[in-house]
Amino acid sequence: MKDEISIGGVCRLAHRGVIRASGVDAASFLQGQLTNDVAALGASEARLAGFCSAKGRLQASFVVWRPHADELFLSCAAAILAPTLKRLSMFVLRAKCKLSDASDEVALFGVAGPTAAAMLGDCAVWQVRPRGGGSAIRLPDAAGARRGFLAVPRGAEAELAASPALALETWDWLEVESGIVTIDAATVDRFVPQMINFELVGGVDFQKGCYPGQEVVARSQYRGTTKRRTLLFDCDVVPAPAQDVFAAGGTQEPVGTVAAAAAHPQRRGGSALVEVRLAALADGHELRLGAVDGPPLHRRELPYAVPLDAAAAA
Fold first, then answer.
1. What is the number of helices (H) and of strands (E) in the chain?
2. Are residues 244 and 303 in the same domain?
3. 165 and 48, same structural domain?
């Protein structure tokens, strides 16, 4: 059953951080590291992008925008910012690009519902407009609510004080409802982009040049080797990221992993984006959280189509 919830307001996103890439080679450097095309990114647009290992597993996922020609911001989960920054810095070499943690300089906020509509106006999804000395980014809607992402200089948050407050837990639930997984500490190095539908939500450009893990990601796309996908489920308990999922009546081997989860804002339990083996869906078994006899997972529709043709594959 689809959730119909009235949601609106502003919340501080303290669990996200910001990496700054600056210098004349900043865009070209990131172009060779991320899954999406950032070289062509304009000041009025943002994009999703991932940073993979050589084996094609996501080490981080970002919202990327370019406030100035020689400066890009990458927002990721704060818990993985330091190791991600360290790993990215290893590849800079002679490029004229400086990478730094800008989290103490840039304040991040999520806006939803009527508040987002008022702040973003007629912005299309992934468009950027200047606001409060920073950037306002339109995100995909979730649970019928318009959403946005504000990145403003520290000290410029005063104008947001008069806006209705939105609980961070509600924002996290909207993130799950959007169908977009954010890589966090528990899920680093677990998923090839297609496993979490990253190419379906605009996080991968298959026409751009090489980046770490690109061969693995391309092979999964063009050889039809994506045997796992991420789907949306409800549960009577709140799942935890990286928690195993099993098929009821099946073996003790997990058939899936919780990629992201949040408590429901108005009832017991929560919602989760679960990366699952498609063959397990084809078997028709009910999915259970944590054990073969654990709490049942109830599938709901994502806001975008997911190809499940591989479900019949072993």
1. 6, 16
2. yes
3. yes
CA separation, residue 115 to residues 6, 107, 169, 275 (Å): 12, 18, 17, 32
End-to-end CA distance of the chain: 30
Q: Is 101 contained in some domain?
A: yes
Residue with tokens 């992402």: 149
Q: pLDDT grade, residue 225 (50/70/90)?
A: low
Amino acid, single-letter form, for residue 19: I
What string of DSSP letters covers 248-306?
A: TTS-SS--EEEEEEEE-SSSSSEEEEEEEEHHHHHTTPPEEESSTTS-BEEEE--SS--
- The answer as to whether 34 is a domain residue is yes
Query: Helical H runs in 63-199?
Result: 81-89, 114-120, 168-178
Whether the pLDDT of residue 245 is over 90: the answer is: yes
159 and 90 share one domain = yes
In this prediction the pTM is: 0.94
pLDDT averaged over the chain?
A: 93
Q: How many residues does the structure list for the chain?
A: 314
For residue 213, tell me if it sits in a domain. Answer: no
Residue 144: domain span: 9-178
Q: Are 268 and 291 in contact (CB under 8 A)?
A: no
Q: Give the C-alpha separation, 149 to 215, whole Å.
A: 32
Name residues whose C-beta falls within 8 Å of residue 135's C-beta, 6 or more positions apart in sequence: 46, 65, 67, 73, 128, 129, 150, 151, 152
- Stated as kind and residue range, the H or E segment containing 220 is helix 214-222
